[in-house]
Design goal:
By secondary structure, the chain is α/β, with parallel strands linked by helices. It has helices at about 15-25, 45-55, 80-85, 105-115, 130-140, 170, 175-180, 190-195, 200-210, 215-235, 245-250, 300-310, and strands at about 5-10, 30-35, 65, 120-125, 145-150, 185-190, 255-260, 265, 275-280, 290-295. It is about 35% helix and about 15% strand. The longest helix is centred in the C-terminal third of the chain and has 21 residues, at about 215-235. The structure holds alpha-D-ribofuranose and calcium ion.
Length: about 300
């Protein structure tokens, strides 16, 4: 039976790869809905981008919801310098035809978790955790009903990418991240410590492009654009591909490894705001609240991504 998932996302080229991996894996995951949140670019664009990726993937039937246009307690910080002004720069794709649902994403998340049998829905978050934080504030009872929350966010050994201390998804809404990590929900955290080992090496992007299908070529063009920033920054062949690791872990957890750790979020220091303080070496008696992944089979990850995108 495919696992029921809700994707919460701020596309973003790497978010697009994650959505395409999910939509190319119907035997593994049933996408109950995709929620757009403000992050890499404003909500108007993340909503547009979600729908463009669904149509590119041949899935205009997917239900798309719009959520928060700003973090819970702070002004929005975006990342056009990484993702381009549209958030999905790279390929030349048509504007979406499919429309968004009228229901707010936060209400969709609450309603779905209260309707589906408890412990059967996995939340896959690819951006700031604002929608989840707001849902927990509005209906705290949903926490006990979530099967697991699998999130791309944070960093410890690798430091940060938007500040020296903070990873972007956490930095944008640290209060939401704090609340999610304190909620009691079973969490798998996929930090930069893992995603910096998942590099879009040129042979991998060319293998994707060589599939020759419209979705695969478009994704290769997204990665061509997306990786330019990181190649310049890290000087590596290819850039880290963050968000698809969330979906890959849901489908093939054996590809990755980590340990249960306590994770706390810095929400006050101007110097380290949004830092994920991960007690990897268990030097405190703070209770573990997340499975933090640090290592993975990068070749196996890209084989999975390319194979599943090839099915679209
Ligand atoms: O720091 C990487 C994360 O921030 C990814 O989810 C990327 O899409 C951006 O949202
Ligand atoms: Ca993202």
């Amino acid at each position: 039976m495919p696992q029921k998932i809700i994707i919460d996302t701020d596309p973003g080229q790497d978010d697009a790869a994650a959505i395409m991996l999910a939509l190319g894996s119907p035997q593994d995951v049933e996408v109950l809905g995709i929620c757009a949140v403000a992050g890499n670019v404003p909500l108007r664009l993340t909503s547009r981008n979600v729908r463009m990726v669904c149509e590119l993937s041949g899935r205009p039937d997917i239900k798309v919801y719009e959520g928060a246009s700003a973090p819970m307690e702070r002004p929005l910080v975006t990342a056009e310098h990484v993702h381009g002004k549209t958030g999905l720069d790279g390929p030349d794709l048509p504007e979406p035809v499919m429309t968004v649902e009228s229901q707010h994403a936060v209400d969709f998340i609450i309603e779905t978790l209260m309707r589906e049998p408890s412990g059967t829905v996995t939340l896959c978050t690819l951006g700031p955790l604002t929608n989840i934080g707001l849902a927990l504030r509005k209906a705290p009872e949903i926490a006990a009903r979530v099967k697991r929350l699998v999130m791309m966010g944070g960093g410890f050994f690798e430091g940060g990418n938007i500040t020296p201390a903070a990873e972007f998804n956490i930095y944008v809404d640290p209060e939401a991240a704090r609340d999610v990590l304190a909620s009691g929900i079973a969490i798998t955290m996929i930090p930069l410590d893992l995603t910096h080992k998942l590099l879009t090496l040129s042979e991998r992007v060319e293998r994707l492009r060589a599939l020759g299908t419209r979705p695969a070529i478009a994704l290769a063009e997204m990665l061509d654009f997306f990786e330019r920033f990181d190649i310049e920054k890290y000087g590596s062949d290819g850039g880290p591909l963050h968000d698809p690791a969330v979906i890959a872990w849901v489908i093939r957890p054996d590809l990755f490894s980590g340990r249960e750790c306590n994770v706390e979020i810095e929400t006050t220091s101007p110097l380290t705001l949004g830092m994920t303080v991960i007690d990897w070496w268990r030097v405190t008696d703070r209770k573990p609240n997340a499975l933090v992944l640090r290592d993975g089979d990068d070749a196996g990850f890209f084989d999975l991504l390319i194979e599943r995108v090839g099915r679209l």
